Structure formats: C-alpha cells, structure tokens
Amino acid sequence: MAQILSGLSLASLGQSDDIARASRAVTALDEVTRQNAAWAEKGTAAAQSLQDQAMPLNMAMGGSRWGAGVGEILWGDLTYIVEQ
C-alpha cells in the first residue's frame, strides 16, 4: 500500500510540474499577444498619420506643373499600402 501511495505522490508532483510549465507557457503567449496588439495599434496609427500627411501633398501635386496624374498615382499607392 505504501508503494502505491508513494507512486501516486510522485505522479502528483509530476503533474504539478507539468501544470506549472503549461501556466508559464500560457503567460508567455499572452505577453506576445499583447505585444503584437500594441504593435498593430502603432502600425495603424502610423498608417493613418501617413495618410493624413499625404492628402495635402496630393492636393499640392494636383496643382503643380506635373499635373494631377502624379498626385493621383501617389495617393493611389498610399491608399493601397494603408489598406493592406
């Protein structure tokens, strides 16, 4: 009977170690997920800022000697990049 109890005790310790390792892994995954979300937010803000800055440039290019075509190309490329 003592051997059975000893075996159960060892198995329980092993399970506790496995649970602790799984918990650490979940915590690490959670941290990476939070970092990715923060980077995505920063990327979205940067893309919006670029779009806001490009609009006056596009308008200025439309009235330049190069004509509206250059501005439209620039704006179209930026819109494509932001939407990706």
Task: Describe the structure concisely for a colleague.
This protein is an all-alpha fold and 84 residues long.
Task: Give an overview of the whole structure.
The chain is mainly α and 84 residues long. 92% of the residues lie in helices and 0% in strands. The radius of gyration is 29 Å and the shape is rod-shaped. The termini are far apart.
Question: Any key phrases for this structure?
Answer:
mainly alpha; 92% helix; rod-shaped; 84 residues
Span between N and C termini? 66 Å
Portion of residues in helices? over 70%
The coarse silhouette is rod-shaped
Order of helices and strands: HH
The tally of strands reads: 0
Strand content: under 5%
Structural class: mainly alpha
Uncertain ranges: none
Radius of gyration: 29 Å
Helix and strand layout, with pairings?
Blueprint: H1 2-62, H2 68-83
